Amino acid sequence: MIRKCALALGAIVLASGCGGSSDHPSSAAKSPSTDVSTSAPDTASATPDLSSPTPEPTPTTQEPVEETHTATSDAPDTLGGSDTTDDDDQSTGDGDQDCGSLAGSGTFTDPLQLGVVDGLVTARNCAPLTSGSPFNVRYFSFTLSGTPGTDAHAGASFTLTQDALGPVYPAIVQPNGWVLKHSLGSGYWTGTEPDFTGRYQQISDLAPGTYILRTEKLDSPLHSLSTPSYDVVVDPGY
User: Which whole-number Å values give the CA distances from 91 to 78, 113, 114, 174, 209, in the listed order?
Assistant: First the structure.
């Protein structure tokens, strides 16, 4: 009986030992769940980082808007400048003008602009023609708006002095370079030799259109003589 009781007690002790060891695996199983819960805040903290680039495109969209405003503000200035140029061209129709204020440089490809001739046009105080190219030739452009009258003429008015003995010779040239009236082959003087007061070309036979008046010093370009300052005159005789 004593042995049976001892065996029974041993079995109880073993059973209780097994029950105690079964508590530890359950606690070990709970630890991974704790690890998962700690990783969750990491993923949550990454979410604001991904959303933070969203505001960045805002300044990018504003920059093109500013560029478009700049472009539109430039457009009226360009249009205004072209309108002013047209008005200036139309204002040079007739009357007295200052030769130094005319548009152009005086070369054949960029002649001084007398504009559309609606009446008598005089460009005053043109600089003397002196020795050496291109100072011995100067070009003027004019446009006849209608058929010239019988007394129509174009040329140069001047006053010779002891220091400026070279007369100014005019010629009529088409914009393509074709000479219609040569400086010596045609033309007439005003005044009496040696006190000439001007030289002109008759333009009554010209059709309406644009022409170039070439003024030149026919003394050798290397000659020391100079012309006086002179006035360019275009009278369509309407």
Answer: 20, 11, 10, 23, 18
Mean pLDDT, contiguous 10-residue spans, the chain (238 residues): 47 45 41 42 41 39 33 33 39 76 97 96 96 87 97 97 93 97 93 94 98 90 82 97
- Pairing status of strand 137-144 against strand 209-216: antiparallel
Structure tokens at 116: 């559309």
Amino acid at 65: V
Can you tell me the distance from the alpha carbon of 209 to that of 189, in angstroms, rounded to the nearest whole number? Answer: 26
Cis peptide before 25 (omega within 30 of 0): no
Beta-carbon contacts of residue 219 (< 8 Å; ≥ 6 apart): 166, 225
Spatial separation of the C-alpha atoms in residues 36 and 228, rounded to whole Å: 106
Other beta carbons within 10 angstroms of residue 42's beta carbon come to 8
The angle subtended at Cα 201 by Cα 199 and Cα 229, nearest 5°, is 35
What radius of gyration, in Å, describes the C-alpha atoms of the chain?
51
Nearest to 115 by CA among 95, 134, 78, 143: 143
Alpha helices in the chain (DSSP H): 2-21, 23-51, 57-91
pTM confidence score: 0.61
How many whole angstroms separate alpha carbon 6 and alpha carbon 12?
Answer: 10
Give helix 23-51 / helix 2-21 axis angle, nearest 10°: 0
Q: What's the CA gap between 176 and 154, in Å, rounded?
A: 19
Could you tell me whether strands 95-98 and 112-117 are parallel, antiparallel, or unpaired per DSSP bridges?
A: unpaired
